Amino acid sequence: MPFKANSPEGALDDKWTKYRSTMNLVAPNNKRRIDIIVVGTGLAGAAAAATLGELGYNVKAFTFHDSPRRAHSIAAQGGINAAKNYQNDGDSVFRLFYDTIKGGDYRSRESNVHRLAEVSRNIIDQCVAQGVPFAREYGGLLANRSFGGVQVSRTFYAKGQTGQQLLLGAYQALSRQISLGNVEMYNRHEMLDVVIEDGKARGIIARNLLTGKLERFGAHCVVLGTGGYGNVFYLSTNAMGSNVSAAWRATKRGALMANPCYTQIHPTCIPVSGDYQSKLTLMSESLRNDGRVWVPAHKEDVMAIREGRMSAKDIPEDRRDYYLERRYPAFGNLVPRDVASRAAKVACDEGFGVNKTGLAVFLDFASAIQRYGKTEAHSNGLHNPDAKKIEELGKKVIEAKYGNLFEMYEKITGENPYEVPMKIFPAVHYTMGGLWVDYNLETNIPGLFALGECNFSDHGANRLGASALMQGLADGYFVIPYTIGQFLSKEIRTPKIDNSSPAFMEAEKDVDDRLKKLLSINGSQSVESFHRRLGLIMWEYCGMSRNAEGLQKGRKLIQELREEFWKDVFVPGNEDEFNPELEKATRVADFLELGELMMVDALDRNESCGGHFREEYQSEEGEALRRDDEYAYVAAWEWVNGGDPILHREDLEFENVELKTRSYK
Amino acid sequence: MSWITNFLTSSIGRKLIMSLTGLFLIQFLLVHLIGNLQLLVDDGGEKFNLYAQFMTTNPIIKATSILLYSGIVLHIIQGLLIWKQNSGSRNTRYAVSKNPNVDFASKNMGWLGTIILVFLILHLWQFWFKMKFGTMDMIPYEGVEVKNLYALVAATFKNPFYVIAYVIGMIVVGLHLKHGFQSSFQTLGLNHKKYTPLIKGLGSIYSILVPLGFAIIPIYFYFFR
Amino acid sequence: MKLTLKIWKQANNKTAGKFETYPVEADEHMSFLEMLDVLNESLLTEKKEPVVFEHDCREGICGSCSMVINGQPHGPNKGTTACQLHMRSFKDGQTITIEPWRAKAFPIVKDLVVDRSAFDRIIQAGGYISVNTGQAQDGNAIPIEKGLASEAMDAATCIGCGACVAACPNASAMLFTSAKVSHLGLMPQGEVEHTKRVQSMVTQMDTEGFGNCSNVGVCEAECPKGISIENIARMNRQYIGSVFGSATKVEKA
Q: How far is B220 from chain C (nearest CA, A)?
């Protein structure tokens, strides 16, 4: 199997520049003859489709949504990083590169990450030119804020809706290309297979979700920007429709899936309230700037709270355990996401969880309200304010900072977080793993590219806040438009792809058979119920902490569940109609395979790093223990139907950073 | 000049016509009211009759009145067209429709306008048509014979049916104005954080005072003349 | 809590639809869509067709949900999408009527799902800034007044759900269209081509068969993101200005 990272030679900081200026190009007259399929029109896909259209290629873009504007990139709240150094606080391309490598626990490829840091600056310029209304200072210049895991202010934001604004920017650029006829847009079309001909990706089979008709689309190459697979856990902060199917179909056709076990669990989400729960809602990381995380120090208080005999306010200070401040005095409540999540799990596992299910911890703003209240009173010239006045003033400050988040919390839980502490719990948020790609973002299948969360390339074992938007746009606007030329320059003599060749007809038949199979089982359990059960298995055995025994058990359970699914699932309706249950069934069937691969990957990785915590590999204090000698590699898996997946390793070489243990003590 | 017709048939163009004709009619109401309030002067109708004589004979006023008639006609035609187009924009109606945040008048401008049209026909037939084409009692002032419109008004409003019709008509006009006044500014694009509350306030006052002023006249004649 | 749901069922745009009544047992902590999930799960267990509704992010930002709940788009709570609405806003024993967005320009796909591609076409008509990737100058080259940027941001928060159209007695798309016209027109980068933009977008909006705005204001009241009708006034102003104050000729809708 051809398997090369293809990182250019030379010094780190001019690899990209040199490569870009020497790579093969496709002349404008040839571009007009070349077709490109882009699947997925979120940040990465829409940016790529728009830019490739601008360059003159014939682009066909696909989304299963009714409009590209619904992609889940829209839900990103916090912001987007860029090494602009507008704040003059010592930021640089190298520092962003370094922070990303370190934040990823030294499990990403240096050359890719450095390129990401380089183009991050262009992204901001591009988005401003598109009219993205970033937050501004009084002087009219762009504002920045800081985010977890770094010491500079490099995050650009548009209120708490940065993802929305960036996605709309890309969507608008895409809309412009659609109106110019450079991009043909296929809404409500779901890719159900990729077609490989003579070893190259030459098209896709898509289902028109409105009519149910299968359609064959040929092109000189296929670009996937289809997002992450966090929904394998059923409960996650992902949208209900987010799925792995496009990437998984590619895997089934021979593409490698890299580091699937790296999952980011976000520490501040609203806890599960019941069995009916369908998704989890994220509360921005910024809340940890002022909120203090705690659980009661004594079990009897925990029980009293769970039974409703006591409230958080009744527990005196000396009977509280501010466990993050206790365990990590240097960073306190602002430790990185993976550390905070695990600490919450430890507290709940020990029986200190504060809601009925025992799976929640407090995020308390009372002391911030006091602190801000006193400062505010002082600056208003009140020298002996009473407690009530202080509280009133403090709440106003908190409202100004986090008003919309507090409102959202109250909407969902029905509790007023100004009065009682919030209850939070970690939830699956982002998947660092994905399709293996080389420096050109090309998978091991020539002509098949993967962008954004869909690939594995930049975040190693843990992603830093505000870096997902950066990567999606970098890949779509500034990387793929160049690197795709490396492949396409060799294809200028290839005529239009014939979509009725045997490869296409076979792929279409495979898809059709699979759909018919799903509809014909006519079992007794809904697709949703299988998905929920899969989620529970994943969370239990491949969640925040994992161990060999559990992973083996989990793998077996998934295999059994998969078998049961193919025997007893009930999918109503027909193939030739708008049938969301059938759509769900194909996606869950894919999750049922991916889940197993995640278990296999987690089992293979006998170390703890970033989002992957193996209980067997921890320090005496319970911190993650990385094993660089043996595991500084990317695990790229080849799926074998009915057999054990095959591991291909890409050894990671670190020439520019020194591998260190992360410490937040 | 196809761009002009394209503009005038665009949704915003149509609304602009509604807005401009509406504003013109709004100011006409005030002028009309000021003239008519002379009916309340206790002089046997002299002031009012002379005023009526002036309004029907002065060439400038006559020319302006053509503008007024076309304004009314345009407002009606355009209103009906918009109404028709809007009612076609939804094939199936909602089974439950609850708009707790909507003003009654705003939602029912078409119906209110229709009632006003009926009222207008009645009003024109009673006074304008008779004044122009009918035979009227004449009354001399300083040797000049003028039509005694005052007597016609006084006689008409002795009929309680007409008094009620006019009062209802004015309530409807008030409602139509309440939405129309501020709406015409919004259509022209004149919406401003600072000034819009002022316009809305003014509109509310206007839509109460002007119809009230008109409504006083039949009541006054019925009870006090 | 026990509820009675009256839900619009319609197989596709060619067949007629009607209301079906379903009893459902809900928990007050459920979101409205989770309550529908519970209903669907029980329908599937009985091997019946589930109720089809559009949903995705379930956190109020993707704009997928499109249902009129007891006569109000997205239900009774202000500034809330249907996915963020929770059952504690309803009473035990209540009957809830659920209908799709109703507008000629939003044909029904199935049950509560409608086709909102008209919105995409309005954006394609001019809801963008004509700049290619890589052409941009430095992000800080043009200072933008903080207040102006935040006004543009307020308009840009539109999620394209279509509640404005659903709520409007005339099924007008003026709030949606004007939000984009305002967002882009307020930014200096977008101001450059605003005359052409406002004309193309209004023409496309008219072509799609939306009704005329009659300044009722219910769109603003029902908008889950609180987009102001000030934007409509701004669009009117820009449109009228572009017709008489520029050489751009208005195209026929």
A: 36
Whether A578 sits inside 8 A of C12 (CB atoms) is yes
CA dihedral over B6, B10, B14, B19, signed as positive or negative: negative
Is A547 inside any structural domain? yes
- Domain check: are A393 and A529 in the same one? no
8 Å CB contact of A67 and C160: yes
Nearest CA-CA distance, residue B35 and chain C, Å: 32
Q: Would you name the residues of A annotated as active-site residues?
A: 337
Please report the domains of chain C, with CATH numbers, ordered by start residue.
2-110 (3.10.20.30), 116-245 (1.10.1060.10)
Give chain B's domains with CATH numbers.
Answer: 2-224 (1.20.1300)
- Tell me, yes or no, whether A283 and A367 share the same domain: yes
Q: Which residues of A touch C77 (CB under 8 A)?
A: 411
* pLDDT tens digits for range C199-227: 999 999 999 999 999 999 999 999 999 99
CA dist., res. C22 & res. A221, Å (int): 49
Q: Is A116 exposed, middle or buried (0-12, 13-18, 19+ CB in 10 A)?
A: buried
Q: Are C156 and A136 in contact (CB < 8 Å)?
A: no
Residue range B48-101, pLDDT digits in tens: 999 999 998 899 999 999 999 999 999 999 999 999 999 999 989 999 988 777
Contact with chain C for residue A581, Cβ under 8 A: yes
Shortest Cα distance from C66 to chain A (angstroms)?
12
CB contact under 8 A, C134 and A240: no
Residue A341 resides in a domain: yes
Q: Does A180 touch chain C (CB under 8 A)?
A: no
Domain span at residue A359 reads 266-427
Query: Using an 8 Å Cβ cutoff, are A642 and A252 in contact?
Result: no
How distant is the alpha carbon of residue A187 from its chain centre? Answer: 23
A191 in any annotated domain: no
Phi, psi values for residue B157, rounded to 5°: -85, 10
pLDDT in tens, A286-332: 788 889 999 999 999 999 999 999 999 999 999 999 999 999 988 88
Counting as contact any 3 or more CB pairs under 8 A, the partners of A are: C
DSSP3 helix / strand / coil % (chain A, rounded to 5)? 45, 15, 40
Complex prediction ipTM: 0.98
Same domain for A406 and A288: yes
A406 assigned to some structural domain: yes
Are A and B close enough to touch, i.e. 3+ CB pairs under 8 angstroms?
A: no
Number of domains in chain A: 2
Residue A126 forms contact with C (CB below 8 Å): yes
- CA gap A315, A320 in Å, rounded: 7
Which domain CATH number covers A577?
Answer: 1.20.58.100
